[in-house]
Amino acid sequence: MAVVKKKPEPTPVVALISDIETTRRVLAGAGISAIPLDINGAAAALGVRVQYEPMADEMSGYLEKRGVDWVAGVNAHHSGVRQRFTIAHELAHFVLHRNLQENFRDLIFTRRSLERNQMEREADSFAAQLLMPSEELIADVRSGKTNVHELAERYQVSGLAMKYRLMNLGYRVA
To answer: Cα–Cα distance between 65 and 114 in angstroms, integer?
Structure first.
């Protein structure tokens, strides 16, 4: 009599994601790679449900595990560009930190920047890379697109986020 072995369940792709490059590959495989990034589509592709809800102004959002699901809450009162960065920031916590804790509460960037929390800095950096990929942004600048506000509009981010991203890529921004 032959022994039949059950095939192991495949590891969900999302369980293998732990950095920006892998995240981009998974999103590209789901058809999400155009500029500006479809951030809600990205969240859905990664298995994170996004909820827009009223919050105090100093709160940008949160990420929390509810049972087996992950939910990103976004301040419904904030501007669209701020909401996009918040979602990207929460996705960063999901990708980078989901194995470290199951609940993240995030203040607006300007208040967060006063903190010395390594996870928050990592999440901000990841979010910037996700929304403003260096290859595309550098190509845009080299092609003559040098107006910060026009670049911010193209990537659907705030002017301040674009300024910081350009500076982190080594550009001088006046």
So the answer is: 26
